[in-house]
Amino acid sequence: MEQKKQAVKSFYENTHTYLGQDYNIRIRSEIVTAFLADYDTFDSVLDMPCGNGMISLQNASKFNALTLVDFSKNMIKETKANAQKLMVENIQTICSDIFQTNFSDNAFDLVISLGIFAHIENPQRLIDELIRITKPGGLLIIQNTASDHFYGKLIHFYQRIKRKAGKSTYTLNKIPRKWLEKEFLKETKLLNRYDYNQSFLGFSKLFSNEKKYTLTKKLFGDAMNNKNRWLGSDTIYLFQKN
Ligand SMILES: C[S@@+](CC[C@H](N)C(=O)[O-])C[C@H]1O[C@@H](n2cnc3c(N)ncnc32)[C@H](O)[C@@H]1O
């Protein structure tokens, strides 16, 4: 397995590092709920990568069939446990690399793919794959942290300091907002977006998840009233495939 992929896998197998930041999962889940508010049901839905599954599982009452994919065995374990807790039954979990799933063209009415562009080795291939497996007229919910935004640049600067100090060995991909939007808009149209920040940089440990949730919502509002968007390097997009 390639070096970068192995580093990502090891990081996420140790689930508590990411899941400890669950205010962000809560915000993502709420934004997905808001984006889907005007839709009744979806026949086939994919959440890839799913992490602990909470984002799609909490919206599963609208999904006739839900497939959740992640290459971390421990994340898939969390997903199964959460599905049981939430009593969601119509799911299929697949422990696999995104590029080894072999879904057919136009397989899904809705594809949710959050928290992956910073980690995948080939972002262009991921965009092509996500669009390929979405039905024409189907929806894609995508997230990116913009490396061309001043706050995104601060995040990369902070990561570099951590690496220099030996506190991290991992390098996040730099994905410019302009590039990602241009690539998606070749085959989709933009229906909605939510701009915010998911990183408290070196201050994260100072606040509880509840506090970080409240502060983020206070600064950026909710999906229907997204405030201070210029400050947000993170965007959750709702695209519709042409
Ligand atoms: C930041 S988390 C996002 C999880 C979830 N979508 C969320 O927003 O909470 C990234 C997830 O991607 C998974 N992942 C990273 N690279 C992957 C790949 N190549 N194939 C499958 N899963 C991958 C990790 O195991 C991890 O669970």
CATH architecture label: 3-Layer(aba) Sandwich
Would you tell me which CATH topology applies? Rossmann fold
Strands of the biggest beta sheet: in what spatial order?
3-2-1-4-5-7-6
Give the number of domains. 1
H/E element string? HHHEHEHEEHEHHEHE
The distinct bound ligands, ions and cofactors come out as: S-adenosylmethionine
Mean pLDDT across every amino acid position? 94
Please tally the helical runs, counting DSSP H or I stretches of 4 or more residues: 9
Largest sheet: 7 strands, mixed
Task: State the helical fraction.
Answer: 25-40%
Number of strands: 7
CATH-level-4 superfamily name: Vaccinia Virus protein VP39
Strand percentage lies at 15-25%
Give the CATH class.
Answer: Alpha Beta
Provide the structure class.
alpha/beta
Euclidean distance between termini CA atoms? 35 Å
In one word, what is the shape?
globular
Gist of the model:
The protein is of the alpha/beta class. The protein has helices spanning 3-13, 16-19, 22-35, 54-57, 73-85, 123-132, 150-164, 177-185, 209-220; strands at residues 42-47, 63-70, 91-95, 108-113, 134-145, 188-196, 234-241. The chain has a single domain, classed as Rossmann fold (3-Layer(aba) Sandwich), CATH 3.40.50.
